[in-house]
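4.2 Preliminary Data

To establish feasibility before requesting continued support, the project team ran the inverse folding procedure on a target of 565 residues. The structure was first converted into the token representation described in Section 3, and no sequence information of any kind was made available to the design step. The complete token record follows.
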């Protein structure tokens, strides 16, 4: 009895140790308006999970952003894309809070950052790491103001919590943030997958959509299916929270077979390095073709996500002839609102020996090997483990366009695509770049590295690529005054910049011969200088702005203006 009691205590201790407890009262909300969300933690995005929550700001910019707890500023960054203007605060309890897409920082922090921008002569700062304790903040102190920096995003605050030591991202809901949610997730589609050559579902060897009907609120069922062998399911689902129409991600998906749990994942925490495996969680070919994300309720080979809990046979259901199976898939949001779909399955005997013909080409990729092929002056090179599975690759070149399979297969690593450009003149090379052909009418610039007779790029996307020419200089003009004008009442200089070919690579502005900080608003395609940044001497001033695109085409604006102090 004593031994049994000791074992029980040990077991209970280990269970409680395995259940991570988060402080729910340490942090306040980062805004002082009701929390209405445009995005949830772990939401499925292109090639990654959403790393925080997106809090709506009533379509406004400039709302106060507050430090959620005492701490010190550990990192600041300004970038055109991604998080835009972002600030990181380390807290004594071992967590870091992150606030992104800001319009500006609090005055003291803003001054600190601008000194660095002027020293670097760059709007983008890269990562700035203040010394520990250099910029202290108190809980409830204003640290910044909401905005929409970091690409083509609407005004909102992206808010994260991370483990300071590991940098793992954690669901902010676990820290007590209060968001009203009385709406259960909505199930929009269901796929079934035969998972071996001998598997069948309704006599079919291919994955197929299953029709379902509503039994009652938040409960659905399909007709009975017949099957044999290993099968799996995929579900298309979204969640909505009160006060918003946004289709958000769900917190949990589990699957039971005859009442026994065989699959379960929750979006509690993940690391940035594993986020790419989202492409193995979802049915990537289906998403690539139809832009609908079906989450598989079975874990596939090489999926290294750590979101799974107590999987049985990796969620694969082995259907045996003569047996009946009641499959339930339960989808939950963070507060426990649930929707369920039930799938009755009958195991049947199937003596068919038909097997689907395997694709074969001259270009076989083995995952653990390096591969390199060339054709008509174009070379593709795949490092080891670029692909998750072995594959016969389609590779062809026609009329200067290279086709590298189809963009329906996710890649684990980037590969290199190289074009021989020895037949072009030096002038032609200067304006050439590698482009991905998305449709017949649309192409996109790929980061093109140039050597004497070779141009190359690295990418994680299969599909069609070609060489294109950009011989047009960027657009550049003043928006809020004309050269030669008096602008004493103006508080800023606004210039519009644009490029229809490869996009803007860089810009530089000087006022009376000295570099000035012009902030780049991607959505408005404009750069802005605030006169309060620097005291002007005299009344006549010379402005010069230079803009360059990604192949080196440039445009320069020179203007004179008059301004009294």
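Position-by-position output of the design step:
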């Amino acid at each position: 009895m004593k031994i049994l009691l000791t074992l029980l205590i040990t077991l209970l201790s280990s269970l409680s140790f395995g259940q991570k407890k988060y402080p729910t009262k340490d942090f306040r909300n980062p805004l002082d308006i009701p929390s209405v969300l445009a995005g949830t933690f772990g939401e499925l995005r292109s090639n990654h999970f959403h790393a925080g929550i997106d809090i709506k700001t009533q379509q406004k910019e400039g709302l106060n952003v507050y430090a959620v707890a005492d701490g010190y500023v550990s990192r600041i960054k300004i970038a055109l894309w991604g998080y835009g203007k972002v600030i990181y605060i380390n807290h004594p309890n071992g967590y870091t809070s992150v606030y992104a897409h800001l319009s500006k920082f609090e005055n003291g922090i803003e001054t600190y950052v601008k000194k660095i921008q002027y020293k670097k002569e760059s709007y983008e700062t890269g990562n700035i790491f203040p010394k520990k304790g250099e910029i202290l903040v108190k809980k409830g102190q204003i640290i910044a103001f909401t905005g929409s920096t970091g690409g083509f995003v609407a005004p909102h605050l992206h808010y994260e919590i991370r483990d300071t030591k590991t940098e793992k991202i954690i669901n902010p809901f676990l820290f007590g943030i209060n968001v009203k949610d009385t709406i259960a997730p909505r199930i929009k589609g269901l796929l079934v997958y035969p998972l071996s050559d001998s598997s069948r579902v309704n006599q079919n060897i291919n994955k197929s959509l299953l029709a379902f009907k509503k039994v009652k609120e938040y409960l659905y069922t399909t007709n009975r299916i017949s099957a044999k062998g290993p099968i799996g399911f995929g579900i298309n689902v979204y969640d909505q929270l009160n006060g918003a129409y946004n289709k958000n991600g769900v917190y949990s998906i589990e699957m039971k077979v005859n009442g026994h749990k065989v699959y379960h994942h929750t979006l509690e925490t993940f690391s940035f390095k594993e986020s790419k495996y989202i492409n193995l969680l979802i049915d990537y070919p289906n998403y690539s073709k139809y832009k609908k994300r079906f989450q598989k309720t079975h874990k596939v080979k090489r999926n290294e996500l750590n979101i799974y809990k107590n999987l049985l046979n990796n969620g694969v259901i082995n259907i045996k002839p003569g047996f009946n199976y009641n499959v339930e898939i339960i989808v939950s949001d963070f507060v426990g609102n649930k929707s369920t779909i039930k799938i009755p399955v009958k195991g049947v005997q199937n003596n068919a020996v038909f097997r689907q013909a395997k694709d074969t080409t001259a270009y076989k990729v083995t995952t653990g090997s390096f591969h390199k092929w060339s054709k008509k002056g174009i070379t593709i090179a795949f490092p080891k483990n670029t692909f998750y599975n072995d594959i016969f690759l389609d590779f062809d070149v026609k009329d200067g366009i290279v086709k590298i399979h189809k963009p329906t297969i996710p890649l684990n690593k980037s590969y290199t695509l190289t074009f021989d450009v020895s037949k072009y003149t030096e002038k032609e090379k200067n304006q050439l770049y590698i482009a991905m052909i998305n449709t017949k009418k649309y192409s996109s610039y790929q980061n093109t590295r140039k050597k004497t007779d070779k141009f190359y790029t690295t990418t994680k996307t299969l599909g069609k690529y070609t060489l294109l020419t950009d011989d047009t200089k960027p657009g550049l003009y003043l928006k809020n005054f004309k050269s030669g004008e008096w602008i004493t009442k103006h508080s800023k200089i606004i210039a519009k910049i644009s490029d229809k070919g490869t996009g803007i690579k860089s810009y530089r502005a000087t006022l009376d011969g000295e570099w000035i900080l012009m902030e780049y608003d991607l959505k408005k395609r404009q750069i802005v200088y605030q006169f309060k940044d620097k005291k002007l001497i005299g009344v006549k001033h010379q402005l010069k702005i230079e803009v360059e695109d990604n192949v080196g085409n440039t445009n320069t604006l020179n203007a004179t203006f008059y301004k009294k102090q």
